[in-house]
Amino acid sequence: GGSEAEKRAAGESAAETVEDGMVVGLGTGSTAAHAIRAIGRRVDSGLDVRGIPTSFQSRELAKEAAIPLTTLDEADEVHLAIDGADQFSGPHLVKGGGAAHAREKIVDAAADRLLVVADPSKFADELDHPIPVEVLPDARTTVAADVRALGGTPTLRTAERKDGPVVTDNGNLVLDCDFGAIPSPGVLASELAELPGAVEHGLFVGMADEVHVGSDDGVEVRRF
Ligand code: DER
After folding, report:
1. How far is the CA of 204 from the centre of ligand 1 (A)?
2. Helices and strands in the chain, H and E counts
3. What is the complex's ipTM, to 2 decimals?
4. How far apart are CA 26 and CA 51, in angstroms?
5. Residue 93: beta bridge partners?
6. Which atom of ligand 1 is nearest to the CA of 202?
7. d(CA 143, CA 131)
8. Model pTM?
9. How far apart are alpha carbons 52 and 73 in whole angstroms?
10. Which of 20, 114, 129, 140 shows a CA-CA span of 20 to 30 A to 13?
C-alpha cells in the first residue's frame, strides 16, 4: 500500500475537479477519504455540491465533512464519482478491498465520469489482484466451488476485530478469489456475474475515465 502523503495528494487532486452544482459519488477507502475531506473543506468555503455515499464509512466521513447528501433516487444526474481502487490497469480496476464494491459499482456506473484516486502501488500492467466477490451467505460454498471450477482460489474474508467473517453493509459475505494474472478482465467479469448467489464482483471493467496517481513529487493524471 502507498503512503498517506501519496493518497492525500491523489484525493486532493480529485477534489479540485468538483464544480459548483455537481452531484458527486463519494467512494470508499482511505484514498477516497482524502478526497471527501478535501471536498468538505471546499464546501466550507462555499462550494455547492451534493454527495452520494457508497458505504457506511463514506457516509460517516461525508457527514463529518458536512457535505450535503443525496441519493441515487433523488439525484437527476451524478456528474462525477471519485473512488479508490486496489489495482488499476488502464481503465480496468480491481475494487472491493473495503468490501463496499457492490454499492460503489452502482454509484460509479451511474456517474457521467469515474475519477479514480490511487497511489503508485496500485498500478499494474496486467490485473492480477484477487477479485472480491460479495456472496449471499447461504451461497458461500456453492460460489466457492464455482470459482474453483473457473480456475480461481476462493478465500472467505475473515474479520480482524470480530470473530468470523466480514459482513458487508448489505449483510453478505465476501470471497477473495485469486485467479493470478487476468488477461481478459471482461471475460472473467461476465463469468463471475452469472454465478448464482454472487451479488457483485470487484472487477470494474473499462470503468475509469481518469486516474489521479499521487506521489511524493506531484500527481499524475491518466485519462482513458
Ligand atoms: O474497497 C474499495 O473498493 C476501496 O476503494 C479500495 O479499493 C481502495 O482502498 P484504499 O484507498 O484504502 O487503498
Report:
1. 13
2. 6, 13
3. 0.97
4. 6
5. 88, 204
6. 3
7. 13
8. 0.97
9. 10
10. 129
How many residues are present in the chain?
A: 224
Query: Using an 8 Å Cβ cutoff, are 175 and 155 in contact?
Result: yes
Sort strands 153-156 and 173-178 into parallel, antiparallel or unpaired: antiparallel
Distance 100 CA to ligand 1 centre (A): 9
Q: In the Cβ-directed half-sphere of 164, how many Cα atoms lie within 13 Å?
A: 5
Question: Which residues are known to be catalytic?
Answer: 104
Q: Report whether 122 belongs to an annotated binding site.
A: yes
pLDDT tier, 1 (very low <50, low <70, confident <90, very high otherwise): confident
For residue 164, pLDDT beyond 80: yes
Residue whose grid cell is 458505504: 55
Alpha carbon nearest to ligand 1 atom 7, residue: 85
130: left (phi over 0), alpha (psi -120 to 50) or beta: beta
Q: Which residue has the cell 468538483?
A: 18
Q: C-alpha cell of 12?
A: 486532493
Residue 55 annotated as part of some ligand binding site: no
Does residue 201 line the site of ligand 1, with CB under 6 A? Answer: no
Residue 38, H or E segment: helix 30-44
130 lines ligand 1 (CB under 6 A): no
CB 58 within 8 A of CB 36: yes
- Within 10 A of 109 (CB to CB), how many other CB atoms are there? 13
